[in-house]
Structure formats: structure tokens, C-alpha cells
């Protein structure tokens, strides 16, 4: 009895694989013959490698200016490098396995070494292509001499030879760019370290020549440091460009909160122009007294003490020094740089004194209004004195203005605002009244009350200086 027949599973026909084309026997024979011709010529080149190296160095000296200079200083080193590269290249034609790895390492090392030495990358790539061209030319010449009928077979290996050259050009370029990036980072970091030490006043005398070379500035020059802070990055960048006049050499050291510019003053005109570039008014009060915050904050404005004639003088007082801005007439910041605060320090002699110049710039920056603007230290020396000794400044403000500060806030703000505005107006009650929208007699009455409370007389120069500095300390120093 026959077993029950199982039903056959249905097999769906799939895609029929196409038959692989069989390699033509003629093509294989041609490739084998081409490799035989290539190896035969390559062995001859390997034996004549010194002569091939001489030819390459001669061509480099003739066609490549960078190598012409290098051959003058280190002819043996250039020859050895070319000989080593050619040997690896020709050996790779005979043994494409391990020999090619050694050739890659050789090319990588050449690219890295030449990047460290500063040889132009274009010159290095040109040298590698010239070397490849000479190798190919040597293969053709040797085959033409020994077996002219086999020259046609070299066509079948030409692509492999030139692909090898392209591969090693890419390796050289990759190694060169990697080392170049590392060198650039080290160089920039070194410049930053040197400039930072210079600004901190921690630079050693022995480091000054290196610092001068890194910054491109002389050791015995006259310098000003500029401090830039606040605002948006774009505004700070615009301010940095506008601050330094054309033709002046400057190095900018960026920081977390403040950027410092070391500016070389090569003549008095450049020194005067720093910080006084074309400007547009920003959000700080100018000479008309209408800008800035009112009330108590305005009461703390830095007053002008020169040329004040007395409380009972109804007329304006002449400006002390022509063209110098008053305390509420600070130079606005560069156009489009709203909120950017700029401090311009005093000039110093020599790179060794740049640390002092940086402290001067920071003092000027601390005097600058929070809303933005430019302050030159030489125009704000009294305020800078107060800021440089904050404890004494607070003590002075408490001792001189204490009775006023203990009043009710509304009364206190009115008296302090009147006193500061009167000082801003060079002691003119008439002009102060116009700014405060009140009669001049009201201004005079408030000033007399300030005299009574503080025990100071505004017609006495010593008392006026104390009141001026006390108001400055209250404005600039946090409580």
C-alpha cells in the first residue's frame, strides 16, 4: 500500500538571476601582460632612484619658487624627502599591499612636516604631481628603450598610476590642513595668553620682545587701552571698528564682560582721535539735561565744579576749558551701538606699562553711564578718583549728604536733583530752573536749604568740591 501523497507547496517564480558576464580571456591576458611590463619598468626605476631624485629636485628648483628657497637652506633634507617619497611610490607599483600603507604614512608625514615649516600647500601638491609625472615618464621611457612593442600595454595601468598620485595628494593636503589648524590654534592661544598677561600687568620683561612680535607692535611705543562693554555683540563690534582711527594699529583682547583694545599711538592726532569717532546720541543724557533718568538718579549726576560763582548769581558761568564736555555731556557711543559703554584710558609709554593703561580704561568704563556712551579718563578724573577708592567715596557721600539722604524720599529727590542740575548748569539758577520747570527763586530756595542741612556753603570752593565728589560717589558707587 502506497503512502498518501502529500500535496506539493506552490512555489511562486521569483526573479531569475541574470548570468554574470564571464571575464574575457583576452582582457585578462592583456592585464597580466600590462602588469608584467609595469613591474619590469618599475624595478629598473627602483635601481636608478638616485638619478630620478636628482631630476625631481632639479625640476622643483626650476618650476617651484618655494622649493627653490628651501633647497638653498636645506638641500640635503629636500633630496632625502624626495628620495624617500619616490622609493615608496615605485615600491607600491611592485607590491600594492604593505608597501602602499608605508607610502601613505610617508606622504602623511611629509604633509605634516611641511605644514610645520610653513611651506605653501600649493607648492607641496605641485611637488607631488611633478613626482608622479616623472615616475610615469620614467616607466614609459624604460619600456620604450627595452621593449618598444610593449609601450601600448602601459595604457591599461595608467589610471592606476594616476589614481595613486591623486590619493597621495589628498593625503598630503589632509595632513597639512590638520597640522595647520593645530598651529593656528596654538599661535592664537599664545597671542591671547601674552596679551592677557600684558593687560593684567603680569607680563615678564623677558617676554616683552615675544609679545611685541606676536602683536606686531614695538616694545617702546606709546599706548592707550580702550575698554568696551555692554550692548549686543554686533554693537560692540561696530564700536570697536569706530573707536580706532584709520591707520592706527590695535590688538583686541576679548573677555567675558569687557573687551580691551591695545592701541598704538604713533602721533598726537591718533591719540586725540581715539574714542571720538563719528557718533550718534544713545540713551544717555547730553548737554541739554533732558536725557537720562530723572528724580533721585539724576541727583547723583557728576557735577561740574569749575567756574562756579555762587548761589545768588543769576547769570550763567563761562565754561572752564574750551571744548571739554561737562559731566552730563559725555561723548555718545558710535552710531548704532546703543547700550555700548566705552572707556578710554590715559596714554602710557612702553608695552610694560599697558597694565596701568588697562586699569585707566577700566576706571573710565566704570564712570560711563549704564545707558551707554564714551568716557575719556582725562575728562573725568574727579569721578575716577572716587571710583578708584570706593570705601572713601561712600564715606564722603554719607558724611556730606547724610542729612539730605535721611529726608523723606520725595523731598530728598527734589533737593538732590536741584543741586545736581544747578551744578550741571555751571551754577546758573536761571538755566537750572528752565531744566527743572520752576522759577529761579525756587532753585535758590532749595539750594539754601541744602546748605542749611549739609552745613556746607556753595560759594566756598572747598565745600563745593566736597559736595561735587559726594554726588559723584552716590551716582557711581553701589550702596
From TrEMBL:
Domain PucR C-terminal helix-turn-helix residue range list: 415-473
List, as start-end ranges, the regions of compositional bias called Gly residues: 284-297
Under Gene3D superfamilies, the record lists: PucR C-terminal helix-turn-helix domain
Highest taxon, organism lineage: Bacteria
Domain RsbT co-antagonist protein RsbRD N-terminal as annotated: residue spans? 50-190
Region (Disordered) residue ranges read 1-24, 283-337
Q: Where is the composition biased (Low complexity)?
A: 1-13, 298-307
Signal sequence segment: none
Provenance organism = Streptomyces griseoviridis
Q: What is this protein called?
A: PucR family transcriptional regulator
Amino acid at each position: 500500500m502506497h503512502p498518501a501523497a502529500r500535496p506539493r507547496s506552490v512555489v511562486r517564480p521569483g526573479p531569475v538571476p541574470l548570468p554574470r558576464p564571464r571575464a574575457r580571456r583576452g582582457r585578462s591576458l592583456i592585464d597580466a601582460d600590462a602588469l608584467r611590463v609595469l613591474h619590469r619598468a618599475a624595478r629598473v626605476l627602483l635601481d636608478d632612484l638616485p638619478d630620478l631624485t636628482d631630476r625631481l629636485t632639479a625640476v622643483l628648483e626650476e618650476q617651484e619658487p618655494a622649493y627653490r628657497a628651501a633647497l638653498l637652506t636645506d638641500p640635503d633634507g629636500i633630496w632625502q624627502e624626495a628620495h624617500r617619497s619616490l622609493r615608496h611610490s615605485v615600491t607600491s607599483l611592485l607590491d600594492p599591499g604593505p608597501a602602499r600603507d608605508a607610502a601613505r604614512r610617508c606622504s602623511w608625514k611629509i604633509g605634516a612636516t611641511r605644514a610645520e615649516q610653513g611651506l605653501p600647500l600649493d607648492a607641496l601638491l605641485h611637488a607631488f604631481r611633478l613626482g608622479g609625472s616623472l615616475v610615469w615618464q620614467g616607466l614609459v621611457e624604460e619600456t620604450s628603450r627595452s621593449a618598444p612593442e610593449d609601450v601600448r600595454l602601459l595604457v591599461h595601468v595608467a589610471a592606476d598610476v594616476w589614481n595613486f598620485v591623486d590619493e597621495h595628494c589628498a593625503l598630503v593636503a589632509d595632513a597639512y590642513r590638520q597640522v595647520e589648524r593645530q598651529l593656528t590654534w596654538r599661535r592664537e592661544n599664545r597671542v591671547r595668553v601674552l596679551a592677557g598677561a600684558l593687560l593684567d600687568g603680569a607680563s615678564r620683561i623677558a617676554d616683552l620682545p615675544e609679545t611685541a612680535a606676536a602683536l606686531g607692535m614695538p616694545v617702546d611705543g606709546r599706548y592707550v587701552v580702550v575698554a568696551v562693554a555692554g550692548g549686543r555683540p554686533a554693537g560692540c563690534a561696530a564700536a570697536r571698528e569706530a573707536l580706532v582711527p584709520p591707520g592706527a594699529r590695535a590688538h583686541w583682547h576679548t573677555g567675558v564682560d569687557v573687551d580691551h583694545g591695545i592701541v598704538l599711538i604713533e602721533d598726537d592726532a591718533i591719540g586725540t582721535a581715539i574714542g571720538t569717532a563719528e557718533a550718534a546720541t544713545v540713551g544717555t543724557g547730553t548737554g541739554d539735561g533732558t536725557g537720562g533718568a530723572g528724580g533721585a538718579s539724576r541727583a547723583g549726576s557728576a557735577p561740574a565744579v569749575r567756574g562756579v560763582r555762587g548761589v545768588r548769581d543769576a547769570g550763567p558761568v563761562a565754561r572752564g576749558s574750551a571744548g571739554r564736555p561737562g559731566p552730563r555731556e559725555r561723548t555718545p557711543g558710535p552710531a548704532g551701538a546703543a547700550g555700548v559703554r566705552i572707556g578710554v584710558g590715559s596714554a602710557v609709554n612702553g608695552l610694560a606699562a599697558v597694565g596701568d593703561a588697562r586699569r585707566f580704561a577700566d576706571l573710565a568704563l566704570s564712570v560711563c553711564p549704564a545707558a551707554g556712551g564714551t568716557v575719556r579718563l582725562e575728562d573725568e578724573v574727579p569721578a575716577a578718583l572716587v571710583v578708584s577708592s570706593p570705601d572713601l567715596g561712600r564715606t564722603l557721600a554719607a558724611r556730606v549728604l547724610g542729612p539730605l539722604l535721611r529726608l523723606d524720599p520725595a523731598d530728598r529727590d527734589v533737593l538732590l536733583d536741584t543741586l545736581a542740575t544747578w551744578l550741571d548748569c555751571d551754577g546758573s539758577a536761571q538755566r537750572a530752573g528752565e531744566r527743572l520747570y520752576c522759577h529761579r527763586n525756587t532753585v535758590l530756595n532749595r539750594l539754601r536749604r541744602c546748605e542749611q542741612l549739609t552745613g556746607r556753603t556753595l560759594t566756598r570752593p572747598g565745600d563745593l568740591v566736597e559736595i561735587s565728589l559726594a554726588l559723584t560717589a552716590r551716582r557711581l558707587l553701589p550702596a
